[in-house]
Amino acid sequence: MDLSEISEELAQIEGQINDIFRALSNGFQKLEKIKDPNRRSRQLEELTDKMRECKRLIKEFERVMKEEESRNTRETVKVINDKKQSMIKELNSYVALKKQQASSIENKRVDLFDGPSAENGFGEENVLLASSMTNQQLMDHGNQMLDETDQAIERSKKTVQDTVNVGAETAAALKAQTEQMSRIVNELDSIHFSIKKASKLVKEIGRQVATDRCIMAMLCLIVIGVIAIIIVKIVNPHNKDIRDIPGLAPPANRRLLWAPSD
């Protein structure tokens, strides 16, 4: 059949899709030459956006195809459907290439095109059209993804809270240790001051004891001298030298008492 029988709207959408395919081909060729992981990641994100746009256009192509299905012949419908399947397969090939590149640069972002393609080129829950899924299935799948996202967020919150708690406990422990070290330093300063004061006091006591010993020694010498003189006086009372010692000689009236009477 003549392909010119395809409506102008479908031909326009097909042209936009082909433009995206050419951009994807050039983009992946450019991606192979980029060495910097960050630049590769940004380039891959741009290509992913183009694939999303291509997916949207294929959905639009399918919608228009169904609207015009009643006005087209069976052969025309078959040709249009073959074009759709061909576009789906080509997009799936870029999706597979995108997965390979994402794995090579360890890109962990959620892949909206994740999942194997079906034999007819569709992945009902991944890359392309979801025409075979009911609205309820789509809603259930969306709710499941939201639940998984909420669970991941809760796990992240728990991890962050645990990290904050550990940090707070560590800070409290460090503060307690710092205060303890300050008390130890203060106690050491007090002990050092006490030792210095005690050492000074011991020196003063030593000097005082030395002075007292000198005085005691002098007193002892004086007492011994006095005792010696007394002993000598008792033994030899007529010793003139002893009488001449001041304070030990007998007074004059005593000398008269001792003198013989006329």
From TrEMBL:
Residue ranges that the Swiss-Prot or TrEMBL entry lists as coiled coil: 3-71
One Gene Ontology term, aspect cellular component: SNARE complex
InterPro entries: NPSN/SNAP25-like_N_SNARE, Sec20_C, T_SNARE_dom
UniProt domain T-SNARE coiled-coil homology: residue ranges: 143-205
SMART domains: t_SNARE (SM00397)
N-terminal signal peptide: none
Compartmental location: Membrane
UniProt entry keywords in alphabetical sequence: Coiled coil, Membrane, Protein transport, Transmembrane, Transmembrane helix, Transport
GO molecular function terms listed in the Swiss-Prot or TrEMBL record: SNAP receptor activity; SNARE binding
Biological-process GO terms, alphabetical: protein transport; vesicle fusion
Bilayer topology annotation: Single-pass type IV membrane protein
Pfam families: Sec20
Principal subcellular localization: membrane
Transmembrane segments: 215-235
Family designation: Belongs to the novel plant SNARE family.
Protein name listed in UniProt: t-SNARE coiled-coil homology domain-containing protein
Organism: Ananas comosus var. bracteatus (red pineapple)
Lineage, broadest ranks: Eukaryota, Viridiplantae, Streptophyta, Embryophyta, Tracheophyta
